[in-house]
Write a structure and sequence with these properties.
Layout lengths: L1 E6 L5 E5 L4 H10 L7 E4 L5 H12 L2 E5 L5 E5 L6 E2 L1 H4 L9 H8 L1 E5 L12 H9 L3 E4 L4 E5 L7 E3 L8 H11 L5 E5 L5 H13 L2 E3 L5 E5 L8 E3 L4 H13 L3 E7 L5 H10 L1 E7 L6 E7 L7 E3 L11 H8 L5 E5 L8 H8 L3 E5 L2 E5 L8 E3 L3 H13 L3 E5 L2 H4 L5 H7 L3 E6 L1
Parallel strand pairs: 2-15, 3-14, 6-7, 10-11, 18-19, 22-23
Antiparallel strand pairs: 1-23, 1-24, 3-5, 4-5, 7-9, 8-9, 11-13, 12-13, 15-17, 16-17, 19-21, 20-21
Bound molecules: ligand EPZ.
Length: 428
């Protein structure tokens, strides 16, 4: 297994660019199952999650070619197999996003219950509520498979909110299935994440009738069929936020291109309060802006609570925590989406951070400096927080099990090396 060896203390300088969004690419790829012709996606990042999704789609009869420039061509050639097997699903929760397209297009899906993961349980009850709301039969069969089937889906009005608010992939699943259902579907408390709007844009190009994407109420008027099309994936707002915070924690000065600043309002609000400057150099397209990032020497402590979009994203919680370990005072971080998403707390403490957890809240008492240490990556975003801490720490940090990072960051160490970081990939 690979690890990152980091010698901290180098200020990040220079220019970098944000890759295409992983969390948009995965459901966009799955949505290709709805099309009667080829779908071409541009700017799909080269990540292990993307490879896993391609493997699953091939098993479901969809050809997938992904070239080195990030262009991906998908075409369904055989609709005979609609079973998403356990050994694929258990490696990646996002496999669930084939559920809606398969049910909408083929009317019959066998899907293995995903089970939990490092950041907590990953239930799919809201997804199944949505499928049932469209008239599908949903039953749990032996060996953990969910069998959903329907002769013809019928649109209806449904509420898709759960105890933690809206569901991103649940909203996308219902939107995809409803696109080929009979009649109109209205989703109340739909997720508002930019990735939902990006998949809606693809479906509309394919011929779907969708309004309200990106707002809490979406309306989908079903159509008979959907055609192939071409689409460019939005930039990855989480990678962008991570690169901004990595610059800030090293007190660096970096220009970032293809930055979806328009999708980062909550993060920008907190970063401004901390004392991080993110100046727009070219904002002609606020979803692909060029920004210049720098930070004050002294970082202010903040309060932050993760919320569904447009609130502060849970996927930036670990990175913000790493940043404020060096702030001048006490910060309070509350995780409302995945209350167990704190595997990075023990690891940051090994580097000298002062963190006090009470349930879904962590108090971060700022310290003057972090000290390098061997640490263990766990979930994708916690790993990014540990890399950031290593960039700022005195001495050497070894982040083990970086396969977690490879799931969601395209060659992160190369991007950081180009910005002057002393980081290299070594075998563990
Ligand atoms: C998406 O996951 C993202 N993944 C996650 O990013 C992200 O953390 C999450 O949205 C929240 O923003 C992809 O887009 C591939 P949810 P998703 O359904 O859609 C509960 C990363 O690091 N819930 O919005 O699976 C759930 O347990 C990943 O890139 C139910 O209770 O998340 C959670 O507490 C990690 N029942 C909350 O809702 C359900 O049926 C939000 O989950 C579904 C979800």
């Amino acid at each position: 297994m690979d690890a990152f060896l980091i010698h901290g203390g180098k200020r990040l300088k220079g220019a970098t660019q944000v890759s295409g969004s992983k969390n948009a690419s995965l459901p966009l790829m799955a949505a290709a199952l709805l099309a009667d012709g080829p779908v071409v996606l541009h700017d799909v990042p080269h990540l292990s999650d993307i490879q896993n999704m391609a493997r699953l789609l091939r098993e479901l009869g969809c050809e997938v070619e992904h070239d080195e420039n990030g262009t991906m061509r998908l075409e369904v050639v055989d609709e005979g197999n609609s079973h998403a097997r356990y050994d694929v699903v258990r490696t990646m929760r996002a496999s669930v996003c084939v559920l809606g397209p398969l049910l909408g297009k083929r009317g019959n899906v066998l899907f293995s219950m995903p089970g939990g993961c490092a950041i907590g349980d990953r239930p799919i009850d809201l997804h199944l509520r949505g499928m049932a709301g469209l008239g599908a039969d949903v039953e749990l069969e032996e060996n953990g498979n969910i069998h959903t089937k329907a002769k013809r889906l019928r649109g209806s009005k449904m509420f898709l909110g759960g105890p933690f608010g809206s569901t991103v992939l649940g909203t996308i699943n219902v939107m995809c299935a409803a696109a080929l259902a009979e009649g109109t579907t209205v989703i109340e408390q739909a997720a508002c994440e930019p990735e939902v709007a990006d998949v809606a844009d693809l479906l509309i190009k394919m011929g779907a009738h969708i309004s309200g994407a990106g707002t809490p109420r979406m309306t989908i008027d079903g159509v008979k069929s959907l055609s192939g099309t071409e689409h460019r994936v939005i930039a990855d707002r989480i990678e962008a936020g991570t690169l901004i915070m990595a610059t800030a924690i090293t007190n660096g000065d970096v220009k970032i291109e293809n930055c979806p600043i328009d999708a980062l309002a909550a993060a920008m609000d907190r970063l401004a309060a901390i004392g991080v400057s993110v100046d727009t150099v070219n904002g002609a397209n606020p979803m692909r802006a060029t920004v210049s990032v720098s930070s004050a020497r002294r970082l202010e402590p903040v309060m932050v609570t993760t919320q569904p979009h447009p609130g502060f994203p849970t996927d930036l919680q670990a990175q913000l925590m790493a940043l404020v370990t060096l702030a001048d005072g006490n910060s309070i971080i509350t995780e409302k989406i995945f209350p167990e998403r704190f595997l990075h707390v023990a690891e940051l403490s090994r580097m000298g951070a002062k963190l006090y957890r009470q349930g879904p809240t962590v108090m971060v008492s700022g310290v003057k400096r972090l000290i390098g240490a061997p640490v263990m990556a766990s979930d994708l975003r916690a790993s990014a927080g540990l890399v950031m801490a290593g960039l700022a720490a005195k001495g050497a940090t070894k982040v083990n099990r970086v396969y977690h990072l490879d799931r969601g960051y395209e060659q992160l160490e190369l991007k950081l090396q180009k910005l002057g970081a002393d980081i290299e990939r070594v075998s563990e």
